[in-house]
Amino acid sequence: MTDFNDSYVGQLRRFVGDRLLLVPGARIVIENTAGEVLLHRRTDFGLWGLPGGNAEEGESLETTIVREVSEETGLELLQFKPFGFGCDPLVETFTFPNGDRCQYFVLNYYSRSFRGLPCIGDNESTAIQWFRPSLLPPMLPNMLKSIEAYVRFLQSGEFQII
């Protein structure tokens, strides 16, 4: 697990303070055989979200999502594919409780192929649980948009720009 202060974004924060950062990242909709999606309750906002995170130096987004899923859920991804790209600044820009600001550019993946049982794997989560897409808990808006885009992707087969 990467300590935030040692992460790429953590290192940048020492130089730029809370100035807006443009951050590449990845998130994933993991779906079980019952059609439920895996969410974790985040410690920063207290809301539910999808597994995912920021790319580190030298990482591809594929490597990023595999690492983040392992860290946040304890699952090993066996297969995953992209279904959409999140880039709307009205949805993907956040001010964190500590004042840090980020605008995310996120490749959205999905997977139905994984190994292991989900568990809280780091200090970024207080709970982890499966939910039906029609009965979601209070979520971060960008993560909710990703799930809505995933549902549209399943219906249309078209790559989604969020």
- Along the chain, the helix and strand elements come as HEEEEHEHEEEHE
Principal-axes shape call: globular
Radius of gyration: 15 Å
Structural class, judged by helices and strands?
Answer: alpha+beta
State the share of residues found in helices, binned by percent.
25-40%
Low-confidence stretches: none
Helix count? 4
Q: Whole-Å distance between the termini?
A: 29 Å
Number of DSSP strands?
Answer: 9
Q: Largest sheet at a glance? A: 6 strands, mixed
Describe the structure.
It is built from 4 helices and 9 strands, in the order H-E-E-E-E-H-E-H-E-E-E-H-E. It has 162 residues and is an alpha+beta fold. The strands form 2 sheets. Strands 1, 4, 5, 6, 7 and 9 form a 6-stranded mixed beta sheet that branches. The protein is globular.
List the helices and strands and how they pair.
Blueprint: H1 8-16, E1 21-30, E2 37-42, E3 48-49, E4 52-54, H2 61-73, E5 76-86, H3 89-92, E6 93-95, E7 101-115, E8 125-131, H4 141-156, E9 160-161
Parallel strand pairs: 1-7, 5-9
Antiparallel strand pairs: 1-4, 2-3, 2-8, 5-7, 6-7
Descriptors for this entry?
162 residues, alpha+beta, six-stranded mixed β-sheet, three-stranded antiparallel β-sheet, 4 helices, 26% helix, 36% strand, globular
